[in-house]
Amino acid sequence: MGEDAESSKINHTFLRDYVTEADVISTVEFNQTGDLLATGDKGGRVVIFQRETESKGEAEEAGETGDSGEYNVYSTFQSHEPDFDYLKSLEIEEKINKIRWLPQQNAAHFLLSTNDKTIKLWKVSERDKRPEGYNLKDEEGRLKDISTITSLQVPVLKPTDLMVEVRPRRVFSNGHTYHVNSISVNSDGETYLSADDLRINMWHLGITDRSFNIVDIKPANMEDLTEVITAAEFHPHHCHLFVYSSSKGTLRLCDMRASALCDKHTKLFEEPEDPGNRSFFSEIISSVSDVKFSHSGRYLLTRDYLTAKVWDLNMDKGPVETYQVHEYLRSKLCSLYENDCIFDKFECVWNSSDSVIMTGAYNSFFRMFDRETGRGVTLEAWRESSKPRAVLRTRRVYTGGKRRRGDVGVDSLDFTKKILHMAWHPSENIIAIAATNNLYIFQDRVNPDTQTQ
Amino acid sequence: MFPKGTKRKFSDSGEEPVSAGDQVPPAAPSVAARTLTSSYSLQRQSLLDMSLIKLQLCHMLVEPNLCRSVLIANTVRQIQEEMTQDGTWQIMTQALAAAQCPADRLVATEVLCRQTDAAAQAGQSPKPFSVVGLEEGYHAEEVVMEGDVETEVTMSTLSPVSPQLSSASYLAGPFGMGPCWEEEEEDGECEEDEEEDSEECVSEGEEADRDHLSADSRTGEQVFGTFEIKHPAPPPDPALEELFSDVDPSYYDLDTVLTGMQSAPKMGPYDLLESLSSHGPTTLSSSSSCRSDLNELDHIMEIIVGS
């Protein structure tokens, strides 16, 4: 398929560069409406951004139509603290590995955040009124001297400045021996799964002292361990189906109706190895770093080191589409193994209509692939080369042939600038890209709504 | 794993893929070794060394990345299998078998090292070791990477101390390391000398009697100092020096013992590193000198454990 073709039909406008604290962002997630965007960082903090609508506050001067608004900080809280495992004498990082929003049921918002060991349910609620006129307490809350009270009054709710309260509602701890890499909320709205390297547990959102183990691939003898779980997700519509990926590049679709312990997959998705490309690194680069169901629930998107693949749930023999993210790195695998970059875990996302997929790369590049045309485009999330509201120009990595101006050579790629985490708005063409400690939000001004794409 | 006659490529920047197709009859192992192009075997060798180093490095403070460790171990296993197929592994096997004696491990290692010259060119490895024996290595962690936002990592030098570990454990067969993965207590093997974080960790973990190691080497040494093996410092191999920091191998043994596992000292990787020292001249002299110390260590360990 043609790659890196400059696509003129997609015009991206750089809205603003949000700089979080110095810490590195480790996860990004929109909620179901896209009005809220949560980021987690290595310091255990969660920052929630809220999209400004025109009805709220002053409309921007840029003259955009519709309700496209900017994202501003809504709330910040410390989700996880550094912990210490006294038994193993090791620290437990407070880094937020994943954030997942619950479907909204009332005025409050709920999200799950997890570090390596503990998952927490947070309630985010607004308070814009407060009662005034207590009889027994004065304005500062101190108890009044009863003898001074001569009449009774009814407290009245008065509007105040908006306050966002975030409270932990549940703490799901001691469920995992190994590092939690994924959490996924079930479509039933009551349960969620958490996956670590060797096990997947299913929790009820209301019960913190128990969880069901639904997958366990820990061998009886740890010496025989050759494969770990790398990601897991519930099906978006079928509450009994979930998928998990492994370090050997396999995907397993499991049906919880079949048995309590889903060690036996319902379907195994695996692509036969290409003997021509075999090397010592074949297994490592086949390890799936992320798996995502399409919004339709029909397809799976996976990311391994060099490619992004789309799988049809009905066909387990191999992917239906394969996109080369940075094939030019294939000859550099030894160096990438040496500096550990080969173990980087890139995420991948679908757009709202499942017609475009996106994933990250190095040098602050990220790639978008149009599934209909098969074409890919390379974009850059780098403050120096972008100004707010500027149009993102496409980039290209020079791999031979005619060299154009602006092409970047493979050897000049900065491997410390990796785009691992990203999110796509659930209904609009707005993307959030985490680049180390910066969050970039891009919006498609030309085609803001996916329906018109 | 690897169908015979398949053209194998070794991915490396600028390197040509090497074809080492036909299976060489084991009857002439040296011939087998030589039929592999030296560049391929060197590449494979360096990959094996690199992998072992990665497994050994410990990120002392945080639990290691299991996925990464598994992938590296699988790579090592793959190389080992290929070397077995090529017959290069068998050379080492024969050398070791010939040198069996009561203190078999130790002698074998020495023999191994003596034979290293002949074996080195062929890029051999010691007799098949269960990669699983690298368990402790699984806590081994991130390699120093430029610009890495993670905590800086010290690599352990292949100090004179380390060879004794190798001599201890390289033997194939059950290593009895079962719980290594799970119990990740073993994580505490490698030390980091001047880790700022390790000092914090030390303050928290002053329980010196814990069955695995604290992050701070100094604390560890206070506790386990008696087991530290002193060696005359061999001329440091510059390449290895920069990769490793001091590692007290007694940790491994102590850990093994205290976690209730067989006291077969582990550290397959170290002996591999040693024997694969076609690149490193240091190990030869050092290994022979640690034999007696390892004997001492075993003795001490037995007393401590009372096993």
TrEMBL record, chain A:
GO molecular function: protein phosphatase regulator activity
Swiss-Prot/TrEMBL keywords: Repeat, WD repeat
Gene Ontology CC annotations of this record: protein phosphatase type 2A complex
SUPFAM superfamilies attached to this UniProt entry: WD40 repeat-like
Subunit structure: PP2A consists of a common heterodimeric core enzyme, composed of a 36 kDa catalytic subunit (subunit C) and a 65 kDa constant regulatory subunit (PR65 or subunit A), that associates with a variety of regulatory subunits.
Family: Belongs to the phosphatase 2A regulatory subunit B family.
Stated name of the protein: Serine/threonine-protein phosphatase 2A 55 kDa regulatory subunit B
Organism encoding this protein: Larimichthys crocea (Large yellow croaker)
Source lineage: Eukaryota, Metazoa, Chordata, Craniata, Vertebrata
From TrEMBL, chain B:
Occurrences of domain SERTA (ranges): 40-87
Ranges of compositional bias, category Basic and acidic residues: 209-218
Cell cycle found in the keyword field: yes
GO biological process, one term: cell division
Biased composition (Acidic residues): 181-208
Highest taxon of source: Eukaryota
Keywords, in A-Z order: Cell cycle, Cell division
Region (Disordered): 1-27, 178-218
One cellular component (GO) term of this entry: nucleus
PANTHER family: CELL DIVISION CYCLE ASSOCIATED PROTEIN 4/SERTA DOMAIN-CONTAINING PROTEIN 2, CELL DIVISION CYCLE-ASSOCIATED PROTEIN 4
Annotated protein name in UniProt: Cell division cycle-associated protein 4 Hematopoietic progenitor protein
Organism annotation: Collichthys lucidus
Taxonomic classification: Eukaryota, Metazoa, Chordata, Craniata, Vertebrata
